[in-house]
Amino acid sequence: MALSKNIKKAAFWSNVMKVGAVFVVLITIISLCFNSFSDVFSGNWDAVLDKNFSNQLWIRFFSSKVIAGFIYGIYVSNKNMK
Predict the structure, then answer these.
(1) Which residues have C-beta within 8 Å of that of residue 45, sequence separation ≥ 6?
(2) Rounded percentage of the chain residues whose pLDDT exceeds 70
(3) Which of 5, 2, 22, 38 has the alpha carbon at shortest distance from 73?
(4) How far is 82 from 70, CA to CA, in rounded Å?
């Protein structure tokens, strides 16, 4: 079904949010592992905080993931809606 028809359905937006939320969580975990692998697994949370979230870096860190999650959620939900 076309995206223009799917966006009118409440079930579509519910699926977008579910898929997008899972995607954001997974991408956040993967991103933290790539950016601060040794700090994450050694429990040095202050270094993780400084490297990824200090000086308003958290805005860029999470905004890119939320936008990607939303786009991915729309893509997957539209592909799977019948």
Answers:
(1) 39
(2) 99
(3) 22
(4) 20
